[in-house]
Amino acid sequence: MTISRALLDRAAHLRDVPGILDALRSSDEVEVIVVREGRARVAGGALVTTSPSDVGEAQWALLGRRASGTPLLLAVTDPPSRSIDAAPAETWLSLRETGGMLDELNTEILVEAIALAGWLRDARFCPTCGLSMQVRQSGWSRWCADCDREHFPRTDPAVIVAVESEDGERLLLGANAQWKGRMYSCFAGFVEAGESLETTVHREIEEEAGVRLTDVRYISSQAWPYPRSLMLGFRATAGSDRNARPDGEEIVDVRWFTRDEIGSALAGDGPVGLPGSASIARALIVDWYEERTHAVPSERIESK
User: Fold this and answer.
1) Could you give the CA distance from residue 96 to residue 28 in angstroms, rounded to a whole number?
2) What angle do CA 112, 134, 29 make, to 5 degrees?
3) CATH number of the structural domain spanning residue 236
């Protein structure tokens, strides 16, 4: 599995430059990613950018700079704009809906844009006193004049775990109640107060699947802006295959899958559906499948 690496220069040193956003919005040498209700425009397998003058009313932030030095801005807008909705071939897509159509750079930009847009939209008021806060650092912080406190975008750590059998030949997946049995995936959960990542892994798997683990290994991570998660991917080994059972609330079914069954599901031939290719869940499943098989599926997933 390929570990994520930064491809976009976030240009954090520019965020505190006085008037930087106003200056960039007045420039013709700037690209803008527009995010509306958690979606951005995609066409031809790439994010669609526009110029600042085409956006209209929006909340603005500096995303960074391309390798060429071109600044990239975020514009968070709710109402449709005739100028940015003009091209019929372009579609507004969420990260989930893009699947694997975007390359690493475009995926990184989209994740950053959706995550920051969500925070700018939702964190307008001070959590201490309730007053409206001022945007600072080119969209990367908010300041409360009454409390004199500065607030930053939150990231909530969560673990996601691919559980294999003792012999390594079967993979345990669960069906979330929200999916109504249509899809099986790795087990996941948020880190609770005072927990280490390893403690969370053990707790979540025992709670959701009734399985105790004998081995836990960190694999990779993925930022997931729904709403503001950092998914930390692990592989783990179950101490016993016989005790697996769903919690009956969040997880309605758990099932051990053979390598052949996983290969068939990755190819889209059943017996169950698997997570989309934009997710680290699928990357963990593909990583396990390819480890001991020569029959590599048609897709190769990278951790975004």
Assistant:
1) 32
2) 50
3) 3.90.79.10
Distance CA 20, CA 54 (A): 19
Confidence (pLDDT) at 299: 45
Q: How far apart are CA 168 and CA 175, in angstroms?
A: 21
Asked if the peptide bond before residue 225 counts as cis, ω within 30 degrees of 0, the response is no
Q: Tell me the pLDDT band of 1, cut-offs 50, 70 and 90.
A: very low
> Is pLDDT of 159 > 90?
yes
CATH number of domain containing 113: 3.90.79
User: Do 71 and 183 share a domain, yes or no?
Assistant: no
Q: Is residue 299 part of a domain?
A: no
| Average pLDDT rounded to a whole number, residues 25-47 | 93
**Residue 150 is part of which domain span?**
123-154
Residue reference for tokens 């844009």: 113
pLDDT at 91 over 90: no
Following DSSP, what letter does each residue of 158-169 receive, concatenated?
A: EEEEEEE-TTSS
147: in domain: yes
Token pair of 229, please? 């998660």
| 208 domain residue, yes or no | yes
In percent, how much of the chain has pLDDT > 90?
75
Inside any domain, residue 302: no
Res 85 pLDDT > 70: no
189 shares a domain with 71: no
pLDDT confidence bin for 197, thresholds 50/70/90: very high
Burial of 139 (0-12, 13-18, 19+ CB in 10 A): buried
50 shares a domain with 18: yes
pLDDT of residue 121: 92
Whether 176 and 116 map to the same domain: the answer is: no
**Does residue 52 contact residue 73 with C-beta atoms inside 8 Å?**
yes
What's the distance, CA 283 to chain centroid?
A: 13
**In contact, 186 and 214? CB cutoff 8 Å:** no
What stretch of H or E contains 173? Answer: strand 170-176
